[in-house]
Amino acid sequence: MDRTLAADLARLPDLLDATRRAAAEALATLAERPVVPPAPKPRDPAPLPEEGRGTESALAAFRERWEPRLSASAGPRYLGFVTGGATPAALAGDWLTAAHDQNSNSSMDGAGQDLERETVGWLRELFGLSDAHTGTFVSGATMSNTTGLAIAREWLGERLGVSPADDGAAALGPVRVLSGAPHSSIAKALSFLGLGRSSLVRVPTLPGREAVDPAALDRALADTPGPAVVVANAGTVNTVDFDDLPAIAALRPRRDFWLHTDAAFGAFAALSPDHAHLAAGLDASDSVCVDLHKWLNVPYDSAVQFTRRRDLQARVFQNSAAYLGPLGEHPDLVHLTPENSHRLRALAAWFTLRAYGRQGHREIVERNIAGARALGAALEEDPAFTLLAPVRLNVVCFTLAEDPDPARLTALREAVSAEVFVTPTVHEGTAGLRAAFSNWRTTQADVRRAAEALRTAAREIA
């Protein structure tokens, strides 16, 4: 064994304790550190060491060279990208994920698979899905949407008497994927799956909304030759608008389509009694995307996908090799996603669900919703700002009341980045900003700091 590696092994408990102290110091300062530090002067990449100096030296170099440049994205005022932090339990679970380093794809070493299935069952219950849905962990919403649409592609083949998994997507002929306000990852998934970005057809939305017009969707389906795929939204990125899922499902007796619902963070509305109606009808979906490193507050990268057609899922992703288990009645995870290598992502989710339960995660959701509404109210009262949409759940979409051109909004965003991080957007042709609340640490005090920072910056750039 390499001498330095052997020395680290002998000192492993001390090195883990030093790492724990470094992590604890970083987390203890989250609330007061710049949310996004000022961009430093670029540094030339360091050369690869020929001879290593061990973990202690690497930790010191990281803390000197890289830690000061990292954002406080795990903190309470990082309101970009609908990014959660990591609850204490999720962080513990993630650390143990690395420590145990499981290959959870195979039933020949099946504890990881069993843990994942238990966790998926808890999540299914959390979101109000029935036992007809099975699920697997993937890396994020993009891979969850891609997996769901890959199953939809095979369903189209089933309806047409071909198998895209065997014969290629070209065997389907022209395909139409209908959606009102699809997330950008949908087009990316269609490109990846060989269906093409041009197969995505945007259906008119309701006036002033990002929710699809069910009547327009009905007409679009009537004009579609053969079976189609409908991508519904349970929480759009800009305004957290929800398609009327029951109304879409009601079209099925006379229209032939697969229903995929992108509920990346909107599914969590099901936890709140006052907002659960927004996610009503989610169970009618044929496939569902939920992103867990958003509102479940587990570390990157983690999401789950659900489907009613695990048989088609296994047909798409089956992996035949002598060292892998057979498909069987309960296929190994290696047969269910694009990944052969499957980290035990479920452990962090298992930890936070086991530690805080439905009630604890409901409190996070409802506190974030209250924070978004408070920020929306503060900006609405300030003549410098205008809301681009009502605050329906946990996202505030806003812009400058006067001259909201992208350059001024960029100046505003950069001026407040030490106090609060928000991201640019465009809503109905107007440039704006969005603040997304999903972090378990965020309080009303953070809302007040964010509002004050935005007000001050707006006066300075006026």
Automatic annotation (TrEMBL):
The keyword Secreted does not apply. One of its GO terms (molecular function) is transaminase activity. Pfam families: Pyridoxal_deC (PF00282). It comes from the Bacteria. Keywords: Aminotransferase, Decarboxylase, Lyase, Pyridoxal phosphate, Transferase. Residues 35-48 have a biased composition (Pro residues). SUPFAM superfamilies: PLP-dependent transferases. Its cofactor is pyridoxal 5'-phosphate. InterPro entries: Aromatic_deC (IPR010977), PyrdxlP-dep_de-COase (IPR002129), PyrdxlP-dep_Trfase (IPR015424), PyrdxlP-dep_Trfase_major (IPR015421), PyrdxlP-dep_Trfase_small (IPR015422). Residues 33-55 are annotated as: Disordered. Belongs to the group II decarboxylase family. This is Aspartate aminotransferase family protein.
